[in-house]
Amino acid sequence: QVQLVESGGGLVQPGGSLTLSCAASGSIFTINAMGWYRQAPGKQRELVAAITSSTNYANSVKGRFTISRDNGKNTVYLQMNSLKADDTAVYFCNAHTRALSNGNLVQYDYWGQGTQVTVSS
After folding, report:
1. In this structure, are strands 65-70 and 10-12 parallel, antiparallel, or unpaired?
2. How far is CA 7 from CA 12, 18, 65, 110, in A?
3. SS3 string of 72-115?
4. Backbone phi, then psi, for 2, in 5-degree steps?
5. Which of 66, 31, 72 has the alpha carbon at shortest distance from 52?
6. For 45-89, how does the pLDDT look when each residue is reduced to its tens digit (9 = 90+)?
């Protein structure tokens, strides 16, 4: 079991910055990858950024967002710069876990509660 607690969402003006944090607890050793997803009204949930041994970003945020991880604090961050209106969405932290259970590989996704990011003037 993994618990994810998010923080850092809020209202910001276009061109501004926000940093989201996601603290993981529980069976941390099972986490294979962590990432951030977002879902805007009327749109599908989409992957924003992910981090494993490397990082991956959606094309829409490349060059503006940075995902990082502090293993000592079991926390993943999403630094968002040059924010624009299209970034407005509920952002969800995700942890993908893999573990062997009785010889079987079990994979599961855990989700944070979501935090609202609104970019508006």
Report:
1. unpaired
2. 15, 11, 16, 16
3. HHCEEEEEECCCCHHHCEEEEEEEEEEEEECCEEEEEEEECCCE
4. -130, 135
5. 31
6. 999 999 998 999 999 999 999 999 998 888 999 999 999 999 999
What's the one-letter identity of residue 27? S
Residue pLDDT, tens place only, 104-115: 999 999 999 999
Tally of CB atoms within 10 A around 24 = 21
Q: What does each C-alpha distance from 11 to 8, 48, 88, 110 come to in angstroms?
A: 10, 19, 9, 26
Strand 115-119 to strand 89-101: parallel, antiparallel, or no bridges (unpaired)? antiparallel
- The residue length of the chain stands at 121
Q: Is 34:93 a contact under the CB 8 Å cutoff? A: yes
| Rounded distance between C-alpha atoms, residue 34 and residue 98, angstroms | 12
Query: Of 8-12, 36-40, 71-75, 108-112, which gets the smallest average pLDDT?
Result: 71-75
> 28, 2 in Cβ contact below 8 A?
yes
60, two tokens:
């829409």
Question: Rounded to whole angstroms, how far apart are CA atoms 42 and 58?
Answer: 19
